[in-house]
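Predict structure. Chain length: 91.
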Amino acid sequence: MSGFKCPGAERIRASFPDEVTCACGRKVEIWPDEGKVRCPGCGRTVSREMPPACIEWCAAAKECVGEQLYSRYLRAKEERGGSPARKEAGS
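Prediction complete.
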């Protein structure tokens, strides 16, 4: 299927951040593959819940979103206390 793009991975590949409000009131940008960032205003760590994504269970996830985004997403999910139920292809 040429040109097919997985709709579940669109948010992971998105080229725009979410805005989260820090305790100090400043708006902080968090990209889809990040679970937490440091507020540039006060230095606090700002985090947010990472919604479930197909990257956590899909055997084609690494190829679909690319090695770099795949690794960054899973690392951020683990840092947030999530345990991705990711199955490697062939397991």
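Summary: The chain has one domain: 7-79.
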